[in-house]
Amino acid sequence: MRVGEVMRRELVTVGPELPLHELQDLLLRQRVSGVPVVEGGNVVGVVSRSDVVRQLEVERSQLETIAAFYLEPFDVETESESQRRELPEAVGARLEKLRVRDAMVRDVLSVAPDASLAAAARLMVERRVHRLLVVEGGRLAGLVSALDLVALVASGRLVERGGDA
Question: Helix, strand or coil for residue 33?
Answer without folding.
Answer: coil
